[in-house]
Amino acid sequence: MKLIHLPSLALLVTASLLSANTIAAPELSKSLSSTTSSDMVHVFGWMEDACDGEQPPYKKVYDKHAVFINSIRGQRPYEDFVKPKAQWSSEYRNTIKEVKMNIGDIYTEYRVIFNKGVTYRGQPLEEYIFSFIPESSGGQNTLKFSSNANISTIMSNFQTRQVEYWGEMGNRGAIYNPKNKMVTCEFW
Question: Do you find a cis peptide bond into 56, omega within 30 degrees of 0?
Answer without folding.
Answer: no
